[in-house]
Amino acid sequence: MNKINRREFLKTTALTGAAAATINRLPVLLIPGDIFAATPLSMSANKPIAISSGNGTKALELAMSIIKDGKDALDAVIAGVNLVEDDPNDMSVGYGGLPNEEGIVELDAAVMHGPSYRAGSVAALRNIKNPSKVARLVLERSDHVLLVGEGALKFAKIHGFKEENLLTEKAREAWLKWKENLNKEDDWLPPHTIEETDIGQIYEKYLRHYGTIHMSALDMNGNLSCVTTTSGLSFKIPGRVGDSPIIGAGLYCDNEVGSAGSTGRGEANLLNCSSVMIVEWMRQGKSPEEACLLACKRVNERCREKRLQDAQGRFKHGVTFYAINKRGEYSGAGIFSGGTYLIHDGTEVKRKDCAYLFKR
Ligand code: GLY
């Protein structure tokens, strides 16, 4: 059930026919032995590159300038996304992000450093507008990888972060509008079967979204790092954690191979651990585009709940994947056409169309 139509896939994907055919023959599940059999992409591009979600133009410009100063990719990607975390007009990340269902902004973020194979993340962090910086501190100044909620906040304060109200007037008004229009389609679901369709998650009506920024970069020394940061699903149940702070789901990098991350419906990605899968598919020789499309295919095929599918049985929510490899090749991909991502190739930021499984 719910298989991608092969003809549709071949017709609509941006891949060449041969590459697409290779993708369709691939098993969706990774066979553990393949990890060890695969050849790492040890050749570095020798030129810097950075990729981000579509809300990262300025972030990429800053990140690339830092990379060109010879700094580490981790410094660059975090400084880049800090711009978006600080921007009150981006209502999907950091300060000004849309709050949870109680009107409180809770942020998730994670970072991963290729050269040292370390990661840090925070989830459901309140009152600190730069969760990516706190995630970096978890990496550098603790023996842990993921801190959540009150513990993450205490950790941030111990390291000198000041609490502030992250709810802007614009976000508060948007939240109030949503709350005033509550009905049976909220996140609190009664007992139900996977066959039911008229239940939960009416996104378009209330402008709910999963906006997020991901950035991966390859620095002048051929080292990779990445970051993903978000205020998560708007109006979520307090305590809800998405994919962004989960290493392997919202981001993953391997300094020998490549780096990947995601935006969009975190629940789908949490169930598929797409970022680590994308990196492992690249290790096995897939291009970033092929690997991102395999992740889309896996999300689509594994969805069994009718309420999350369109009339053709396709996963109807947005997920977008971003990947760069050690050679400086890159791509973004989503399940449906129409998505874009940004790339900075060392000269300028360019907006590119995402590859996709299905034409909208
Ligand atoms: N991908 C962001 C989230 O689901 O929270």
Reconstruct the topology from this structure.
Layout: H1 6-12, H2 17-25, H3 32-37, E1 49-53, H4 57-68, H5 73-86, E2 106-113, E3 118-126, H6 131-141, E4 146-148, H7 149-158, H8 169-180, H9 203-206, E5 212-218, E6 224-230, E7 251-254, E8 258-264, H10 266-270, H11 274-283, H12 288-302, E9 319-325, E10 330-336, E11 340-344, E12 349-353, E13 355-358
Parallel strand pairs: 3-4, 10-13
Antiparallel strand pairs: 1-5, 1-11, 2-3, 2-6, 5-6, 7-8, 8-9, 9-10, 11-12
The structure holds glycine.
Q: Total strand count, please?
A: 13
Structural class: alpha+beta
Q: How many domains comprise the coordinates?
A: 1
The largest beta-sheet arranges its strands as: 4-3-2-6-5-1-11-12
Percentage of residues in strands: 15-25%
Bound molecules: glycine
In N-to-C order, the SSE pattern is HHHEHHEEHEHHHEEEEHHHEEEEE
* Shape by Cα distribution: globular
The N- to C-terminal Cα distance equals: 20 Å
- Into which percent range does the helicity of residues fall? 25-40%
What's the quaternary structure here?
A: single chain
Mean pLDDT across the residues is 86
Low-confidence stretches: 1-40
| CA gyration radius, whole angstroms | 19 Å
**What is the CATH topology descriptor?**
Glutamine Phosphoribosylpyrophosphate, subunit 1, domain 1
CATH architecture: 4-Layer Sandwich
